[in-house]
Specification:
Number of strands: 10
Number of domains: 2
CATH class of the largest domain: Alpha Beta
Number of helices: 10
Order of helices and strands: EEEHEEHEHHHHEHEHEEHH
Strand content: 15-25%
Strand order of the largest sheet: 6-7-8-3-9-10
Structural class: alpha/beta
Distance between the termini: 41 Å
CATH superfamily of the largest domain: P-loop containing nucleotide triphosphate hydrolases
Length: 261
């Protein structure tokens, strides 16, 4: 470590994860760390186990064996809602938004796990309920400004284009005030300009908000440009874990993507 350079702590660690469905091994002895303020990309051919791994991290799947630790706490058996309250936020490959609600309302909905006021207290307009709603609105406004979507804040989400809806999905995840952000193919189906926008927001999230990001993405150009480190999966097993420049030249990675002559 260079003199005067702060050592980054580990935000999340995966230790010897196995995941099986019947006789099918989906993940095999997967181990890696995500450090504070790091953009870690997970790549691999179709069927490599990337989304299954994300499901283990966010709680949709429970691994057959192994451990997931978040801020040094074992969360392997912790349910999804509890992981969200701990600060683990996720965006999905498919868009999971309330299409009949406005952009602003969708982003506010992402804040619900941080709220202490229940529906009855809100309807009675108790002082602390009003104060909390005001705080939630302020957070939503800040996110709208950050994502540069002020012009569509009151538009129904269902009437917006695919790229904007993906941006709103990111905004809703940010409303959770995450300690770590998991993004499953956030740029799938986007044009070049939309990809550039999302890549810029991911960098801003890491640089300005200091939130570590776990990114699953097929666009290798984007992955190599914005990642600090890249983990490569093949048939459920890690075959490489290194900085982008070394991943590009790794014979195992080249073989996994291009095959042998």
């Amino acid at each position: 470590m260079e003199k005067g350079k702060k050592k980054r702590t580990i935000s999340l660690s995966v230790e010897n994860i196995f995941l099986s469905f019947g006789r099918v091994d989906v993940l095999r002895d997967v181990s890696f760390n995500v450090k504070e303020g790091e953009i870690l990309s997970i790549i691999g051919p179709n069927g490599a186990g990337k989304t299954s791994l994300m499901n283990c991290l966010s709680g949709f799947y429970r691994p057959t064996s192994g451990t997931v630790r978040f801020l040094n706490e074992d969360i392997t058996q912790v349910p999804i809602h509890r992981r969200a309250s701990l600060g683990i936020a996720r965006t999905f490959q498919g868009i999971q938004l309330f299409e009949g609600m406005s952009v602003f309302e969708n982003i506010m909905a992402g804040r619900h796990v941080r709220m202490k006021t229940n529906i009855l207290q809100s309807s009675l307009h108790w002082p602390w309920a009003i104060k909390e709603e005001s705080q939630v609105r302020r957070v939503a406004e800040e996110i709208i400004d950050f994502l540069e979507i002020e012009s569509i804040r009151d538009e129904p989400v269902g009437e917006l284009g695919y790229g904007l809806r993906k941006r709103i999905d990111l905004g809703r995840a940010l409303a959770l005030d995450p300690t770590i952000l998991i993004m499953d193919e956030p740029m799938a189906g986007m044009n070049v300009e939309e990809k550039e926008d999302i890549a810029r927001f991911i960098l801003d999230i890491q640089e300005e908000r200091k939130i570590p990001v776990i990114l699953v993405e097929h666009d290798m150009e984007v992955v190599m440009d914005i990642s600090h480190r890249v983990v490569v999966l093949e048939w459920g097993k890690i075959i490489a874990d290194d900085i982008p420049d070394k991943i590009r030249k790794n014979p195992k990675v080249i073989k996994a993507y291009l095959g042998e002559e």
